[in-house]
Amino acid sequence: MPARRRTSAPRTGIVPNFLDKLEWRNAGPFRGGRVGAVAGDPRDRNTFYFGSCGGGVWKTGDGGLYWENVSDGFFKRASVGAIAVSRSDANVIYVGMGESCIRGNVSHGDGVYRSTDAGKTWTHLGLERTRNIGKLRVHPEDPDTVYVAALGHAHGSNTERGVFRSRDGGKTWKRVLYRNERAGAIDISMDANNPRILYATIWEAVRRPHELVSGGPGSGIFRSNDAGETWTDISRARGLPKGLLGKIGIAASPAKSGRVFVIVEAEDGAAFRSDDGGDNWERGSEDRNLRQRAWYYNHIYADPKDPETAWVLNVDAWRSNDGGKTFVQMSIPHGDHHDLWIDPDDPNRMIEGNDGGGVVTFNGGESWSGVYNQPTAEFYHVTTDMSTPYRIYGCQQDNTSMSIPSRAPIAGVTAADNFAVGGGEAGHIAVRPDDPDIIYAGEYQGVITRHDRRTKQTRLISVWPESSSGEGAGAVRYRFQWTAPIALSPHDPNVLYHCGNRIFRTRNEGESWEAISPDLTRNDPKRLGASGGPITKDNTGAEYYCTVFAFAESPVARGVLWAGSDDGLVHVSRDDGKTWKNVTPKGIGSWALVSIIEASPHDAGTAYVSANRYKQDDFRPYLFKTKDYGRTWTKITSGIPGDDFTRVIREDPAKKGLLYAGTETGAYVSFDDGGRWQRLGGNLPVVPIHDLVIKDDDLVLGTHGRAF
After folding, report:
1. Which among 430, 421, 432 has a CA at the least distance from the CA of 396?
2. CA 133 – CA 148 distance, rounded (Å)
3. Single pTM value for the model
4. pLDDT in tens, 170-184
5. How far apart are CA 439 and CA 430, in angstroms?
6. What is the distance between the alpha carbons of residues 90 and 42, in angstroms, rounded to a whole number?
7. Which long-range contacts link 202-205 to residues 24+ away (Cβ below 8 Å)?
8. What's the CA angle centered on 582, arms 581 and 588, to 5 degrees?
9. What is the pLDDT of residues 190-235, one digit of tens each?
């Protein structure tokens, strides 16, 4: 921000004019976040678009040097899964909401939007319940004919999934391909030489709190020869894998009729090519680099001019010049690649989207525009220090930790003012209040570091410094969540806490640790197995479950400790960790993720809990307060929409009962201790708020798609 806080509540508790006039400042950093959808203007060589996974739609008119958001004020959700510009009328743009590379922190969408003036204004076209959209394809000669590959709910079953078609610009939709309520469409490709011929892939997948499942009997490959009216299942055509199928990417070659490329997740998966429209297939490269973590990638694209050239996007980007037999690694800024648009008339002109942003090339990938011009970073948490001006800290998804100044000494905050502070892409950061040059930062798998800004030394001080990559949660000594809590005692800067399935404490900066709690989770063996499968395992630590996700020590009373788990439990200790009491709110629901516990800065017995159950396919907000150390709880969600789930709640240190909350779409304030919530308006865009802090007279937001 910062935005000036109000420290006294109005008599009515509602001041809409004041809230609508708030002025928020994007503090940066201008370092891009995940991009899952890209497209280019087919006529204007310098105009491109990308869809951020938490920051809406962005447009450049100068080949990627400067990007401007064009969806703010129109979109009700911020996560973009697909984008397509009409080849016959570049003013017509379709956007499918909800990313389909379904991470644990995936944000869902609300259907399809359309612009008929090159992004100046947008109209919502429905399909809200599709939740997550994989691809959009527009008829090359008719901007009103569009196809949507809808994955559906990432966390549960639903029927609003499959391939949808509109012939009137999205006014009406017809579902033309449907498999079952557990499998949705993930990719679709159109034969540029005969738009009546379509290819689509169906993916059976679900993201649960403790696992990702990719693959099942619902997955497959389908072809239509009549513009989607009827479809033929070609999943078992000659040459394709015979066993269980997972995620499949598909691309029809515009350069040669009948040529189709696929990248298949299967036990004997590979890249495949057909030259007869999918009736027969030839096995291509079996390089595992093309198919690793298939659920997150498995994207394939055909060159529009050369039938022998195809691209595969994965952790790295790969290109084949021999029809898919072999691939060479390409150099693109950042890694983790998700989408590619190739100019149908000039294959040297492309835009590519990855976990670091959107990048443009005009020379076939020899050089690319940069990612340090996009304020779309995704932060998991935010904290500040005691410097003047104070600095803001957080861990950026698929990047480094980051510290930026709240203001600069001259004109503006630039990259020269920013630096990494150890840790990594996930976790919390804690800065010593008595020495802001000493910073403790987290990373997944229980990594925690001590960084000394003066000496530039970063030292590993993990509780149990053993890499657990490839191991299921049940196989590790201690379970640490992707964003395991790190906290300094508000009473003693020498006391540092780190949370796994137990609470750990050090008094000597990590030289030694002691466990001060038993296992404070449900410790359910059924939810501690290996993640991934049934084809490809995926044990990075992101799905480690039954862990302490939230922790706080009371600023008022030393030794009053609060802990919340990702499997729905809340505990309190009033004797510095010697004993713990289960005080879980009854209305929190089973297996909820307790994301933040806010120990009141005004009263030792008061605490606030923010929780969510979106990974249970439940998108309702869950906020609670207690005044008696957890003996009783009150649910405090009045005023927050029923589908806007919550991640964070904080109490103002200067005004008791003045509360702030962050949800999947924005920020809220309550002037009456949670009795009624109002949206914090002004120029704050729609964006997931993962964390927030009150610093002096500023409110600082850690967003997942629009930086700090």
Report:
1. 421
2. 7
3. 0.96
4. 999 999 999 999 999
5. 6
6. 7
7. 202/162, 202/177, 203/134, 203/151, 203/246, 203/247, 203/248, 204/179, 204/180, 204/246, 205/102, 205/151, 205/154, 205/246, 205/247, 205/295
8. 150
9. 999 999 999 999 999 999 999 999 999 999 999 999 999 999 999 9
